[in-house]
Every structure is written in C-alpha cells, then in structure tokens.
Specification:
alpha/beta; inorganic pyrophosphatase (n-terminal core); Diaminopimelate Epimerase, Chain A, domain 1; six-stranded parallel sheet; six-stranded mixed sheet; about 35% helix; Oligoribo/pAp-PDE_c-di-AMP_PDE; DHHA1_dom; DHH family phosphoesterase; nucleic acid binding; DHH_sf
C-alpha cells in the first residue's frame, strides 16, 4: 500500500465513523475471515462497523466470532441499503470488481462514501479511492494483518481478530499447501497462535463437521469424475437434481474440486455445479504448477481468480457446458 494512501486512511480512521465492510458474493473462509477480522479491529477503535454480505455464508463458518452480526443483502435489501447510504467509509475485501457482489453491484455503484479495497486477485478495477492490491499474497487475511501493522496498531491484535485472520489464511492457502504460502505466511501464523488462536480446533470446525448428506454428495461427485490422462486433466459435476437428492445446503460442495488434483499426474481439474435458481452452471478450476486457470477462466468461462485457483460460470445447459470444456481440454498442451 502506498505511503500516501496509508497516511490518508490513518486520517480517515482517526475519528469514529460508520463503516460498511463488504465481502464478495458466495463468501468463503478468506472473505469472512478478513471482513470479520477488520470488523473487530474497527470496533476496538471506536468505529461503528457493519459487515454486509451479498448472500449467505456457509454453515461451517457460522462459528466465527461476530458472524451473528453479519447482514445479508439479498435477505434484507432495504435495511442493508440504508446502512450503506449512511456509511462514511466502505471497505471491500477479497474482491476487486463490484460485479463480484452480484445484486449489490448497482447499489454499491451509487454510493458516494470513499471505498477502500483490500484484495489479492489480479486486474483490480478502479472504483476505490484507496487500494491495497497485491497478487503475491495467498489470502486477503494476510493482507489485513499487514493493514493493521500499516496503521501502527499491532497492539490491537487479540485472540478474536487473530482467529478470524488465521481462518482465512488456513482456508485460502489450502491448509498451507498452495504455492503462495511463504515463510512470512508462517511467521504471521506463528504470531496468531501466540495470541491464543486454537490452531488444532479450527481445522476441525472447518473441515470435520460434515453432514451425512454432504458425504453422499462427495461420493456422487467422485462417481461423476472424468479423467483425460493424456491432457493431465480431470473434472466432475453435480446437477441440481443430485444436489436436491442429498439435501444440499450452502457450503456442502466446498473443497470437492481439490479431489481432482489428488490423482497422480493430474495438474488441471474443475467442478461444474448446476444452480437452476440463478440459471447458471457455477465452475471452480484448480491447477498445480504453471498452468494458469485464471487465464483459462477469463478466456472461456467469464471468470477469473488466481493462477492455481479460479472460478467461472456458464449460462448454457450442463451438457453443453461439459461439451465445451472437453473440446477445450483436448486442445490443451499441459
């Protein structure tokens, strides 16, 4: 973050303000960890922060401290719009383009309060007055830790803030397995643990609380998996009918995409999930090594993200979407 921006933000935060904090639509561990970590930090500094998520977050994140205070835009649009209109400052975390908030985009575009963007994705849009954008970081939560240090407020870090930040680092780093996990990432995590983070309990809360239906859904996804050995690619899919038959709830498909990379010699994988309500196929891409799924998603599926983890969508049928993907795969040189 530029020195002049840090000084300007310090000045903005020097007096109590009404502040809105926004994650992206379909918030994950990093989105919720960063927004709630910042929420508790701002609360500690006498501000009036409110986290407004575009839509609901997964049940496996509901234990995060402060999650019960989060407002859901699509459930309470009128009240959330009022909070945004009254906000004197708006933070957008873990995304860098307003369309990533879905239906909130048009409301946010009308706001006159200054925006502060903190994000680690590529190609940021220029809607924010102050931008902290750095693709070298594996998570926005790691950047929130740095942001607090930029403000010379390290002494404000406590177990609650540390718990939120740790959660986002853990989830977005693939439990410290992804390439952007650096020595500095581990040094930050060590400090968070020293602040009291329950580092043996949090993975259980995040990953080991599956319902029977979720395990059945995982089984179906594994049954649906297809392998293109010559192209070092795999993919799986879940139809709306399959989701419904296993009593799908938000968050049940989290992490399933990674199973495709656990197969020997596979370096590119995807999962396609039908959402009839939104009339789209939601897609997650993962890769290992140098294959750039961010560019692949941008070029072919109206998406984007990181080199090794990206998302996209398709507005045609599952059958047509899978056919398109297969046709692309057989042309790949991986």
């Amino acid at each position: 973050m530029k020195i002049q921006d840090i000084e300007a933000v310090k000045l903005l935060l020097s007096t109590p303000k009404k502040i809105a904090i926004i994650p992206h639509r379909g918030p994950d561990g990093d989105a919720m960890g960063s927004t709630l970590g910042l929420y508790h930090f701002l609360l500690k500094n006498n501000h009036q922060p409110t986290v407004i998520a575009p839509n609901d977050f997964p049940n496996f994140l509901a234990w995060l401290p402060g999650s019960e205070t989060v407002k859901i835009f699509e459930k309470d649009t009128e009240n959330c719009t009022k909070i945004l209109e009254e906000a004197e400052l708006i933070f957008t975390l873990d995304f860098n383009a307003l369309h990533r908030t879905g239906e909130m985009e048009h409301t946010l575009a009308k706001m006159t309060a200054p925006f502060i963007m903190i994000d680690h994705h590529e190609k940021p849009h220029n809607y924010a007055a102050y931008t902290y954008s750095d693709t070298s970081y594996g998570s926005t939560c790691e950047m929130i830790y740095n942001f607090i240090l930029f403000l010379n407020k390290k002494e404000d870090l406590d177990k609650t803030i540390a718990t939120c930040i740790y959660t986002g680092i853990l989830t977005d780093s693939g439990s410290f397995r992804f390439p952007k996990t650096t020595g500095n990432t581990h040094r930050i995590v060590a400090e968070l643990i020293d602040l009291g983070v329950e580092n043996t309990e949090i993975p259980v809360l995040l990953f080991d609380n599956s319902s029977y239906g979720r395990l059945q859904l995982l089984g179906r996804a594994l049954q649906n998996m297809k392998i293109f050995s010559e192209h070092k690619t795999s993919y799986t899919f879940l139809t709306q009918e399959e989701l419904d038959s296993f009593n799908y709830v938000k968050g049940d498909t989290e992490g399933i995409v990674n199973y495709g990379l656990s197969i020997k010699d596979i370096i590119f994988t995807a999962i396609f999930i039908e959402n009839k309500e939104e009339k789209i196929i939601k897609i997650s891409f993962r890769s290992q090594g140098g294959f750039d799924v961010n560019q692949f998603a941008r070029d072919h599926f109206n998406g984007g993200g990181h080199t090794n983890a990206a998302g996209g969508k398709s507005e045609v049928s599952m059958e047509e979407t899978l056919k398109k993907f297969e046709d692309l795969v057989i042309k790949l040189e991986i």
